Amino acid sequence: MQDYLVFQLYGPMASWGQAAVGGDRPTGLFPGRSSVLGLLGAALGIKRDNAPELTALAESVLISVKQVVPSSLVRDYHTTQVPSHSKKVTHLSRKSEVTGTDLNTILSSRDYRCDGRWVIALSLAESAGYTLEQLRQALLQPVFALSLGRKSCPPALPLAPRVVTVESLRQALDQEFPPLTRSNEQDKLWLGHTGLVTYYWEGDKSQLAGANALTTQPWDVPLSRERWQFSQRVLHQITMEET
After folding, report:
1. d(Cα 184, Cα 202) in Å, to the nearest integer?
2. What is the mean pLDDT of the chain?
3. Residue 61 exposure: Cα atoms within 13 Å on the Cβ side
4. Rounded to a whole number, what is the largest CA-CA distance in the chain?
């Protein structure tokens, strides 16, 4: 038997950041490790420049994801005004940035996943500095506002975190949550559920699907926010019919 902290993520828009080049800001299909750690850090009240606590959090949990609904991709075209760089001026607010006369325009395209729904299951690593109950309480009463990748993408439903004791990881990820509409069956029709779900997990490959799983190495383990550095991890995934 294994303990897991399980919660849901749903919103009309979400953006799970990936490597960005130039003005393109792509999104992943599901929340990666850095996205989930950012959500937990906001809930716990860990500030972005507090590297020791962020590292302790990252070393505390193993993260698994069930993509319930694949969602659809939307691209948003952005224009942003920014001041010219000057070593003599330090801007402490957005108002300060745009009140000057020497402004430039930055063009970018930002991707979002629309109407996606994911279930997250967290288990504790051997060197965990937090308990699952501490993380659950933080998600119930977050210190900072929670978002689905970007501040403009708040959750549209309560995360409904719960600690469960089950025999397998799949049992944890297959936990049911209250329906968005009148029933889970109506949810599937409304969200365009295909009958297929995808599982993503860290650790032992055989704990969910064995040799049938695909193994990848995404660059989504945060190393340094100051230098914006990430490293790879081993991630397994499999798509199957929902039972």
Report:
1. 28
2. 87
3. 31
4. 63
Number of H helices, E strands in the chain: 6, 11
CA distance 69 to 194: 8
Sign of CA dihedral 223, 225, 227, 233: positive
Give the tokens for residue 30. 């599901």
Among 120, 242, 235, 116, smallest CA distance to 172 is for 120
Neighbouring residues of 109: CB distance < 8 A, sequence distance ≥ 6: 23, 24, 25, 75, 76, 77, 78
Token pair 């897991």: residue: 4
- Residue 15 to residue 114: CA distance in whole angstroms: 9
Could you count the other beta carbons within 10 Å of the beta carbon of residue 178? 10
Instruction: State the Cα–Cα distance between residues 20 and 228, nearest whole angstrom.
Output: 11
Q: Is residue 22 predicted with pLDDT exceeding 70?
A: no
> What is the pTM assigned to this prediction?
0.86
CA gap 153, 12 in Å, rounded: 8
Are the beta carbons of 163 and 5 closer than 8 angstroms? Answer: yes
pLDDT at residue 97, rounded to an integer = 81
List, for residues 142-201, the tens digit of each pLDDT value.
Answer: 999 999 999 899 999 999 999 999 999 999 999 999 888 888 778 777 777 777 899 999
Phi-psi group of 59: left, alpha or beta (phi > 0 → left; psi -120 to 50 → alpha; rest → beta): alpha
Closest CA to 205 of 167, 236, 169: 236
What is the 3-class SS of 130-158, one letter each residue? CCHHHHHHHHHCCCCCCCCCCCCCCCCCC
